[in-house]
Amino acid sequence: MSSFRAIRVDELSGAHCAGYVEMADDELMPGDVDLAVLYSAINYKDGLAITGKAPVIRHFPMIPGVDLAGRVISSSQEGFAPGDLAIATGCGLGEAHFGGFAQRARLPGGWLVKLPQSLTPARAMTVGTAGLTAMFCVLALERHGLAPADGLAVVSGAAGGVGSFAVALLASAGWRVAAITGRPDEAPYLESLGAAEILSRDDFAAPSKALQQQRFAAGIDTVGGTTLANILAQTQFDGAVAACGNVGGMDLPTSVAPFILRGVSLIGVESVRPRIDLRREAWTRIAADLDSGIIDAICEIIPFDQALERARRIVGGKIRGRVVVEMP
Asked: Using CB atoms within 10 A as the burial measure, which of 21, 23, 81, 134 is most buried?
């Protein structure tokens, strides 16, 4: 029996306690594929799990880490063999099942996607749940029938992980992209990803009319709340907004006006359920559409020893783009 290093969150006297620990293979949760984790990534949800600022973790103890890329050690799942490189994101990782902040993982094979040949494990984790969610949003807009010729696309929370990838993926698909950010100093970064316009978050932060001047054919909203309400109010006839985040609040202070007077559609996008066919489609598109230079521009790679501190920082909005954790 071998041991491995992990970040584990325990609940002690009602309080969260997160730290580095040594664990044994027989402590891993059930699954039919064992992996040596090569890289993980820090998501906002991981920060919430570690700090306890939201009830993300469903039972204790828990290894956080929504994302992981690893090499298969052993498998009883058809389609995976020792040596294969595989990706897992969402699916309850870091919430109900031990996640990627560890040197070892044991997962159901139905949660895994083989690493596309054009991606390295580190680049796949740069993409991770953030990029996969952004790609789900792009696919949702395309299924709705929208195309770059329809007009301007807008992305809120554009300097964050999902927002960064949304800007890059939309621009790669040919859209003219307007990026909403509360950090004007991030304009050069967003322009390097393909943003054609930089919009101030302040212009979308205050409650306003349910119908405003039409500006956007499509949108990807990572914020929710008043920001989403204002985006909907500025979406043109038959446009659509894919919503995937709620850092601005769970409430949506609008009316039915955009939906029944302009035919605007609000499309909900979630990235937790396995839906393996959709995941394969999304990863295939990501591998084909995203330039490696764009992926690298979004990425910062840190050693595992720094992961705990950086996960705490993400909750305060102090991380730009994606922080990838290299496992020892």
From this structure: 134
Please state, in angstroms and rounded to a whole number, the distance separating the CA atoms of residues 247 and 213: 25
Whether 279 is covered by a domain: the verdict is: no
Is pLDDT above 80 for 55?
Answer: yes
pTM: 0.92
Which residues constitute the domain of residue 253? Answer: 129-268
Distance, CA of 285 to CA of 289 (rounded, Å): 6
Q: Output the pLDDT for position 190.
A: 95
What's the CA gap between 75 and 66, in Å, rounded? 21
Q: Is the separation of the CB atoms in 25 and 4 below 8 Å?
A: yes
Q: Which amino acid is at 176?
A: R
- Could you tell me if 138 and 40 lie in one domain? no
- What is the mean predicted confidence (pLDDT) over 44-63? 93
Under the banding of pLDDT at 50, 70 and 90, the label for residue 323 is very high
Report the C-alpha gap between 81 and 62 in whole angstroms: 27
Max CA separation in the chain (angstroms): 65
CA trace torsion 239, 244, 250, 253 (10° rounding): -10
